[in-house]
Amino acid sequence: MDRIDGSTRLVGIVGWPVEHSLSPRMQNAAFESLGLDWAYVPLPTPPERLAEALSGLAALGFAGANVTAPHKLAVAELCETEARSVNTLVVRGGRVEGLSTDAAILAGLPSERPVVLGDGGAAAAFLDALPHARSFSRRGEWPPATDDADVVINATGARDEVLAELGAGQTLVDLPYPETATAAAARTAGARVITGLEVLVAQGAASFEHWTGQRAPVDAMRTALGLPREP
Length: 231
Hints:
Layout lengths: L8 E7 L7 H11 L4 E7 L5 H10 L4 E4 L4 H4 L12 E5 L2 E5 L14 E4 L3 H9 L4 E3 L14 E4 L16 E4 L6 H8 L3 E3 L1 H17 L5 H7 L7
Parallel strand pairs: 1-2, 1-3, 6-7, 6-8, 8-9, 9-10
Antiparallel strand pairs: 3-4, 4-5
């Protein structure tokens, strides 16, 4: 990847807003744990400045960036990618390449009858990873039918409303953090809950490896977010 002056490598997170994101804490802890001279910074970008922001990444010598709401679908139209939704940008030779690591949490997770809730960029990434999934959103089919689902992905922004009632034998992948009412109800009913912080670590570790070419220090990333080390 290009350097402009041999100084600290920069990556960041493009979104609007981004002040709430825990990605800088997690990624900077990862760089520190490996002794890498890298820094991860917030890049608040209003929608009307998105194209300029992508050009700026290359011009300023960034190695890449993450992309969060509301830009994941729009940025796919502005970078080199085959993905419908992009959450990770890699800058090579002045070119901005896009991909999605949003669904990395699915690795090793049985998902024969998945359901995806939502219709934004994260939902699109999970639907692309799970083409056999049923999709529910308020702008489409609603309420969701989840009785026979083995995995339900909550890719909405709803926090205080229980969107679906899950029980024992089912798994909820709950993307928002902190925990939503849907997750709390699912846990009480005996369902397995994979929290938004777990999802953040999985996608962040995959992004880290795309940028640096090194194996992500997952335990350091988990510790930065207050999660226990992997067993």
